[in-house]
Amino acid sequence: MDIFKVLRENFVTQGMLDEEVKLLSEKFRATHYKEGDVIIEEGNPSSELYVIDKGRVSVQIYSTRAKGEKEIIAYLKDGDVMGEFSFIDGAPRSASVIAEEDTRLICADYLELHRFLDEHEHIGYIFLKNIARILTAKLRSMNLGIRDATL
Questions:
Q1: CATH superfamily membership of 3-146
Q2: Could you give the CA distance from residue 97 to residue 145 in angstroms, rounded to a whole number?
Q3: pTM summary value
């Protein structure tokens, strides 16, 4: 898997030069999960940020509405980012993520990535601005879901 290509084509690097994406790509590694594998477990400590290269995953939370069972709240696909909430605040995982099919990802260790972004301020600024846009889009989508559920 070409990590540079995965990042270059991803929204998190929009606005970066190729040289900057190349430097950033050195902080990521490739990984693979089979259908049914748990990638992220709700409540566990945070340690990695993920970008889906190829595949499909479900995002699940324990729900009081579902009597303590996990409920699917979203599906993510090629190009989507996972773990960005915990990347920003360091809190335990807010949801579980399960591979719905064989899935290829790239991932970066939070601490190593934070250090890199601190050392490369311009890359860090662009990266965090793009993560903020991703978070904003997800919050807007959740707001619409809440509105639709209450009408």
A1: Jelly Rolls (2.60.120.10)
A2: 19
A3: 0.89
